[in-house]
Amino acid sequence: MGDYNSPMSAVNHDRYEDAYLRKILRETRTIAMVGASANWNRPSYFAMKYLMDRGYKIIPVNPAAAGQEIMGQKVYASLAELPVKADMVDIFRNSEAAGPITDEAIRHGAKVVWMQLGVRNEEAAAEAEAAGLYVVMNRCPKIEYGRLSGEIGWAGVSAGGISSRRPLLSGRGVQSHVIAGKR
Known about the structure:
This protein is α/β, with parallel strands linked by helices. Helix content is 31%, strand content 16%. The protein has helices spanning 18-27, 43-53, 95-108, 122-130, 141-149, 151-154, and strands at 30-34, 57-61, 69-70, 73-74, 88-91, 112-115, 134-136, 168-169, 177-178. The strands form three sheets. The chain has a five-stranded parallel β-sheet, sandwiched between helices. A hairpin with a 2-residue loop joins β3 and β4. The chain is globular, with a radius of gyration of 16 Å. The two termini are 12 Å apart. 38% of the residues are buried.
């Protein structure tokens, strides 16, 4: 994986550079999804399914469902119980809970803390960055992957840019695109 120990210069958490998000999504392989749900109509379920379909290994973390399975993946009660180190900790909990989860992510050795839409904790972000982690707040990796790969544009949603370049296909279907450099 790339050099996550020296995050890009001062990150603006109100507006992320595409290169910053692209680097994280391209180099991440394993994601611990804290707050993952087996309920098919929860946002975490959609995000988990989408990211798994894009080749990421997703490890669900949810104390209430520990020992069960979500989409064939064993659920763990905490990051400390994971059998492998996750590159990214994706937080599907509220902003207050993001603090202790970020502390746990730092101890776990994650390289990225990603706080979902509506989740923002400036203190936790500062602690994670001081420990050398990349931080994203108030964003969804599913949405950002779709936007950066061109899938959102393919679906008829404006991704905010105009390009004549064709998106890279993943080989898993005409509507499954990849971010340049991700395999």
